[in-house]
Specification:
InterPro entries: BP-dep_ABC_trans_perm, MetI-like, MetI-like_sf. The protein is an all-alpha fold. It is 76% helix and 1% strand. A two-stranded antiparallel sheet has the order 1-2. Helix 4 (72-103) packs across helix 9 (185-213) and helix 5 packs across helix 7.
């Protein structure tokens, strides 16, 4: 076998392995979607079916009815408010913090970066109790602000880690030339620095949105008013005390992931560029 044939065999072999891993990874997602279209009888049948024998939209119709006096659109609105608010706060603060770490000399900078990295290794549940006490003293427990701030604070460290290499890679000479031309520090940052960091900013904003959109623990901990609960709580409520309404649960889960899939399809180039570029710069 020639070197070319050996290379082709390895190439096709790696492709087959990659496809198999992708199918295994996506199978739970596929099972979730098809289960949402099954009837209860088919779900609990002795022989599992990999395709619904009769498509049923009852689970989706049920989601659009009122649950405990709250409509599905109210849950959707709450999720959007929390996700957008957390994304804006996280992205703005992380952008300025990453720029400061990249451009200004300060003591213990490497220690600060290490602390930011370590915080990403800690589980979110560790921060719930201390943040609940803090929000109680601030008087914002039970409001959107408590969940928005918690989700934003949890996303900021990773956003700083991703964005700092972008700002480090921008030559200081560009800023100095802009200042000589009459730009102040803010205009220099807005017109010179930010355009070079757009891929990283979009990537950080996307991940912050996805994290806040899928958050359940913070909403269950900080929110007491049912009118402010997000979609993830609606999905949690599908699990009753005496059993799980699987088709309703899967229908709700499918509706929860639709915005994430749409966001990924729209931002996929920025996500890939933001992550790959940030990993090799600075």
């Amino acid at each position: 076998m020639s070197k070319y044939q050996t290379k082709q065999v390895k190439k096709y072999g790696c492709t087959v392995i990659a496809v198999l891993f992708t199918l295994v990874y996506l199978f739970p997602l596929y099972w979730m979607v098809i289960t949402s279209f099954k009837t209860k009888e088919e779900i609990f049948s002795a022989v599992p079916t990999f395709w619904p024998s009769h498509f049923s939209f009852d689970a989706y119709i049920t989601q659009f009815t009122v649950h405990d006096g709250i409509s599905m659109f109210s849950y959707l609105k709450n999720s959007m408010i929390i996700a957008v608010g957390a994304t804006l706060i996280s992205t703005v603060l992380a952008t300025f913090a990453a720029y400061g770490l990249a451009r200004y000399a300060m003591k213990r900078k490497q220690m600060l970066i290490l602390i930011l990295t370590v915080t990403q290794m800690l589980p979110m549940v560790m921060f719930l109790a201390p943040m609940l006490q803090t929000f109680n003293k601030l008087g914002i427990t039970g409001s959107y602000a408590s969940v928005i701030l918690f989700d934003a604070l949890f996303s900021i460290p990773m956003s700083i880690i991703i964005l700092r290499p972008y700002f480090t890679s921008v030559p200081k000479e560009l800023e100095e030339a802009a200042i000589v031309d009459g730009c102040n520090r803010f205009n220099c940052f807005y017109k010179v620095i930010l355009p070079n960091a757009y891929p990283g900013i979009f990537a950080c904003a996307s991940f912050a949105f996805m994290a806040a959109w899928g958050d359940l623990m913070a909403s269950m901990t900080f929110l007491t008013d049912g009118d402010k609960l997000p979609m993830t709580v609606m999905m949690y409520k599908s699990m009753g005390r005496y059993g799980v309404n699987w088709n309703s649960l899967m229908a709700t889960a499918t509706m929860v992931i639709i915005p994430i899939i749409v966001l990924f399809l729209i931002m996929r180039k920025s996500l890939v560029s933001g992550l790959t570029s940030g990993s090799v710069k600075g």
